[in-house]
Write a structure and sequence with these properties.
The complex is a heterodimer of chains A (about 325) and B (about 350). With about 325 residues, chain A is an alpha/beta fold. Chain A has helices spanning about 10-25, 40-45, 55-65, 90, 95-100, 120-130, 135-160, 165-170, 190-195, 205-210, 220-235, 240-250, 270-285, 300-325; strands at about 5, 30, 70-75, 75-80, 110, 110-115, 185-190, 215, 260-265, 290-295. In chain A, strands 2-1-3-5 form a 4-stranded parallel β-sheet, covered by helices on one side. Chain A has a 4-stranded parallel β-sheet with strand order 8-7-9-10, with helices on both faces. In chain A, helix 1 (about 10-25) links the parallel strand 1 and strand 2 (about 30). Chain B has 15 helices and 8 strands. In chain B, the strands form 2 sheets. A 4-stranded parallel β-sheet of chain B has the order 2-1-3-4, sandwiched between helices. In chain B, strands 6-5-7-8 form a 4-stranded parallel β-sheet, with helices on both faces. In chain B, helix 1 (about 10-20) links the parallel strand 1 (about 5) and strand 2 (about 25).
């Protein structure tokens, strides 16, 4: 059976169920790289120039982990999923860049995803992609439709049940056992930063240990995100602007205890988007906001200390507010 | 209403000509200097690139001089540039300036984007007036670039170092002051003639180094620490295909028709990079492939954290066409002595390489 490798990084968290359904529908076996380890990161960083951002280094590490384990590696070049909205250069150049820095990589299945070129062109690209695995266009169509359905189910699962992407992928079925009135902290940022436990030093776990319910961008409906984004910046510019500006804008006014913005050092789009959220936080002055910048050298102790300080500050604030009320 | 514009190399000269001819009230902020940079760095988000920081510094200085309507390029599908205006407007507001940023859509609307904005700002001046003012601005731009090309040739071989640079400074001033086509023509022929007369070392065979990379840092000498002049001092002839005039020609006029130099670069880059990645990433890879044979080396300039150029930088080493590339990342931390040492080492390497080639 043909094996298609999918690196557990970047867009994996958004689209894995869709991709898996598609390739399995075409009779391929899907191989996912193991979760990120220090070794993955070290291997990835050794291949790219130093200024490349952390998530891309992690991505290269995952591709290296898949070498020799599959016949193809699937790396899409995702330009735009909504009209007139474009993505970061690193996503656009991802297949070409991987080919350049990892010459031993198995053949790359790349696909241009660009809504601006029209539906027809997109369908064409999907057929071209499918042709590597099946000569039967009807089979490709069937697989693509099933994949689309799987994607919607995945999204709904996260919105309705409040699951995070790794939980939804793993099929964790337990409803979140949240006690009512439990204080919550919202995380803002791209899924590849929030759910990769190595690079964020188990941020979600730490917050849950401290007794908070953790809210993430996936738990919001597209409508909620759109309303928030329009309020903050008007017309969105970046492909994943809703995860940052939309989500940040929404949570800042939703009565959570605090909002933590997670960005990777040197991230182009985030340097601007997180700034928008920060400005909004300052303007509102109601919800505490902390921005956490991650890179290879971010030490676990550093993250833990900042988190502690942030949570202490929230606690203190609550106490003072309680006193004032009395 | 008083218009303010950011700087990019000598672009302020044609812009000034254009705005003057339309009898608009405008401010040209001081040319980029240490204060501009400090202001920009101070009020920019942490991870931003140097073009943002410098243009923000310009806008703040323009606002200090009373400008309330800023012209900034923008557009979708390029890089962070498309988002500059939104953030810079917020920064200006938070500093207490009630300024509006008018974005000039350079990526989709091409020439028309700029013309439309100008028409709106000039209170609906007749098209004939706008186009004639625009034409005059473009002529100035072309004159400047033509003189600069000549300067690039003279710099490495002149006997008295610095002559060409001095002439260029004078030429820029003269071009700025010229106020009709006739005097502009005279400036051009005068200075080209003077450059021609500069005494040069007839036996010199200067190394040829191409300058490639991101648009703004290529064209704004303040941001790249005068890399071209420094290379000239080291006796290196600099070639650069990105000129301001070239860009206006290609991205404003010819792009919609599809006849341009860019296509050639894209075709060359195809085996290594198949798609446009925004900014000048595609072109950078293309230039390396295309000029591997005819240049001795390439200096690749990019702002620190520039997304397209990082992708290009990752791809470049893997091309079959081999040529030494020195990447210099520009930001406020770039120190001149450090850069000079790297340039010297690079030029030494190229000299050795050439000698080795001659022996073979």
């Amino acid at each position: 059976m043909v094996k298609v490798g999918i690196p557990r990084a970047l867009l994996y968290y958004q689209y894995y169920p869709m991709w898996k359904t598609f390739f399995e529908g075409l009779g391929a076996e899907v191989v996912v790289s193991p979760t990120t380890t220090q070794a993955t990161l070290a291997a990835g960083s050794s291949r790219v120039v130093a200024d490349t951002c952390l998530p891309v280094k992690v991505f290269c590490g995952h591709v290296l982990a898949l070498v020799d384990k599959c016949d193809y590696i699937f790396i899409p070049a995702l330009r735009s999923v909504k009209s007139k909205i474009y993505n970061c250069s690193k996503f656009l150049g991802l297949p070409d860049m991987t080919r350049a820095v990892i010459p031993e990589c198995p053949p790359i299945l790349d696909i241009d995803i660009d809504i601006n070129k029209g539906k027809r062109r997109l369908y064409q690209y999907i057929y071209e992609l499918g042709r590597h695995l099946s000569r039967n266009p009807l089979k490709v169509r069937k697989a693509a439709l099933a994949a689309w359905k799987a994607h919607h189910e995945y999204k709904e699962l996260m919105v309705n049940k409040g699951l995070t992407p790794p939980q939804a992928i793993a099929g964790v079925n337990a409803e979140k056992h949240s006690t009512p009135n439990q204080a919550s902290i919202a995380l803002v940022g791209h899924p590849y930063l929030l759910y990769d436990e190595l690079i964020n030093h188990r941020l979600i776990h730490r917050l849950e240990q401290a007794g908070y319910r953790v809210l993430t961008p996936e738990m919001l409906t597209p409508e909620q995100l759109e309303i928030a984004i329009t309020r903050l910046t008007g017309q969105p510019y970046w492909t994943y602007e809703e995860e940052v500006v939309g989500c940040g804008g929404h949570y800042l006014e939703s009565g959570v205890e605090g909002v933590i913005g997670v960005i990777a050092f040197g991230c182009g789009p985030d340097s601007l988007m997180m700034d928008m959220v920060q400005r909004q936080a300052i303007r509102l002055g109601t919800t505490p906001f902390m921005s956490l910048t991650l890179e290879e050298h971010t030490a676990e102790a550093g993250v833990a200390t900042r988190l502690e300080a942030f949570l202490d500050m929230i606690q203190r604030r609550k106490r003072i507010e309680a006193k004032l009320c009395v | 209403m008083r218009i303010g514009v950011p700087h990019m190399g000598n672009l302020y000269i044609p812009l000034k000509a254009l705005l003057e001819r339309l009898e608009l009230d405008f401010v040209i902020p001081p040319v980029n200097n240490q204060r501009t940079l400090s202001l920009g760095v101070r009020y920019s988000p942490e991870g931003m690139c140097i073009p943002f920081k410098l243009t923000l510094g310009n806008l703040i200085e323009a606002a200090e001089a009373g400008a309330d309507t800023m012209l900034m390029p923008s557009g979708s599908g390029i890089c962070r540039l498309g988002y500059y205006a939104k953030t810079q407007e917020q920064v200006l507001r938070s500093l207490g300036y009630d300024a509006e940023i008018v974005s000039v859509g350079v990526s989709q609307r091409k020439l028309f984007g700029l013309l439309e904005v100008i028409k709106r700002l000039s209170n609906n001046a007749p098209w004939s007036k706008i186009i004639s003012a625009f034409r005059f601005g473009l002529t100035k731009l072309n004159v400047l670039d033509e003189i600069e090309r000549a300067v690039q040739k003279v710099r490495p071989v002149e006997l008295v170092k610095g002559t060409a640079n001095q002439l260029f400074t004078q030429a820029v001033k003269a071009t700025e002051q010229a106020d009709d086509y006739k005097s502009l023509k005279r400036v051009k022929s005068d200075y080209l003639e003077q450059l021609n007369q500069v005494e040069r070392d007839e036996n010199a065979e200067p190394l040829v180094v191409g300058i490639i990379g991101e648009f703004y840092v290529l064209l704004e000498p303040f941001s790249n620490m005068d890399v071209e002049k420094e290379l000239g001092k080291l006796g290196v002839e600099v070639r650069r295909s990105i000129f301001t005039s070239e860009w206006t020609k290609f991205s404003l006029f010819l792009n919609p028709l599809g006849v341009n130099e860019k296509d050639r670069l894209h075709k060359a880059a195809m085996p290594y990079l198949k798609r446009d990645i925004g900014g000048e990433g595609w072109e950078s890879v293309g230039e390396k492939v295309l000029h591997a044979k005819d240049y001795d080396g390439l200096v690749h300039l990019a702002p620190f954290t520039c997304m397209p150029e990082i992708v290009a930088q990752n791809i470049m080493p893997s091309t079959k066409e081999n040529i030494p590339v020195l990447t210099i990342l520009c930001d406020e931390q770039l120190g001149k002595p450090g850069m000079l040492t790297r340039l010297e080492a690079f030029v030494d390497l190229l000299k050795h390489r050439r000698r080795a080639k001659v022996k073979v």
